[in-house]
């Protein structure tokens, strides 16, 4: 068999190209891949040199695929799907005596829900590797499932009908007030929400969207003063008296001593669930882990 220079293309180069295409910039692709920006640039430059074509146009507004770049990214994605399918077939053959389970979860679920079930799983099936990808919100979790990067996801409802879901627990949204907050009642009014500046996640956060919609339904148009991504940072800002926050309880834990916790005037919950692609060919290990999760977490 004859080999040319194109036969020496590296999978890692194609993965970097896909990441740049998905995120629209070298810096964001580097962040998602946990690589340096120079390593991403080098991988793309080397790939373009090997192929002899320009794959990306660079500009002040990011990196965009050229026409030939779009064609090559489509084929690179197909290679990724085929490689994932090869691994899945091998995992099916190994059953519970090898292979891996790939889990994607939003961060508070990965912190508080997964460890117990995974500990039981690893004790029973030590030959099966478990990997966890943690994200700030559910959109990245669901994208991992769609793109074959995860076998099992932990998300919250509602979600699209392309997924088969199983409820794990209901998580209440709570109001966090600083230690200095003086309440004359155990129940908070909507007006109490204006006593302090509000600290919320950046625009586009799925949980906050639920809160805004819920409050608007009851005539309250929330306006955040601070936008912070990290749940832990938000909670600690409340502890320091900077403002108040509305958060799912799971995301707020552990709650610092002194921070005052109340339910919303009209309670709001999110339903946390497992998710897999409908009609997906799941390995025995995924089924076992689903059972362990369902048995270790109680739905209210």
TrEMBL record:
Belongs to the LysR transcriptional regulatory family. The keyword Nucleus does not apply. This is Transcriptional regulator. One of its GO terms (cellular component) is cytosol. The keyword Transcription regulation applies. The lineage of its organism: Bacteria, Bacillati, Cyanobacteriota, Cyanophyceae, Chroococcidiopsidales. Residues 9-66 form the HTH lysR-type domain. GO terms for molecular function: DNA binding; DNA-binding transcription factor activity. Keywords: DNA-binding, Transcription, Transcription regulation. InterPro entries: HTH-type_LysR_regulators, LysR_HTH_N, LysR_subst-bd, WH-like_DNA-bd_sf, WH_DNA-bd_sf.
């Amino acid at each position: 068999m004859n080999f040319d220079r194109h036969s020496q293309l590296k999978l890692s180069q194609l993965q970097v190209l896909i990441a740049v295409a998905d995120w629209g910039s070298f810096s964001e692709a580097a962040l998602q891949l946990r690589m340096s920006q120079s390593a991403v640039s080098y991988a793309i430059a080397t790939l373009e040199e090997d192929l002899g074509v320009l794959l990306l146009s660079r500009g002040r507004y990011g990196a965009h695929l050229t026409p030939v770049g779009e064609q090559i990214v489509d084929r690179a994605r197909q290679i990724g799907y085929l490689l994932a399918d090869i691994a899945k077939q091998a995992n099916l053959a190994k059953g519970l005596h090898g292979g891996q389970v790939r889990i994607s979860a939003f961060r508070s679920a990965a912190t508080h829900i997964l460890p117990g079930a995974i500990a039981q799983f690893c004790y029973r099936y030590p030959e099966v590797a478990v990997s966890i990808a943690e994200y700030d919100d559910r959109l990245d979790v669901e994208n991992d499932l769609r793109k074959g990067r995860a076998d099992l996801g932990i998300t919250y409802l509602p979600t699209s009908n392309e997924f088969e879901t199983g409820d794990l627990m209901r998580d209440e949204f709570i109001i966090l007030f600083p230690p200095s907050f003086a309440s004359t009642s155990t129940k908070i009014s909507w007006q109490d929400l204006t006593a302090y500046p509000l600290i919320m996640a950046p625009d586009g956060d799925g949980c906050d969207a639920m809160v805004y919609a819920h409050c608007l339904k009851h005539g309250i148009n929330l306006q955040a003063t601070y936008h912070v991504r990290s749940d832990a940072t938000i909670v600690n800002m409340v502890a320091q008296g900077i403002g108040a926050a509305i958060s799912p309880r799971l995301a707020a834990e552990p709650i610092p001593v002194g921070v005052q916790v109340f339910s919303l005037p009209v309670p709001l919950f999110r339903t946390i669930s497992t998710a897999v692609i409908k009609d997906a060919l799941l390995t025995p290990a995924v089924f076992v882990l689903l059972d362990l999760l369902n048995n270790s977490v109680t739905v209210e």
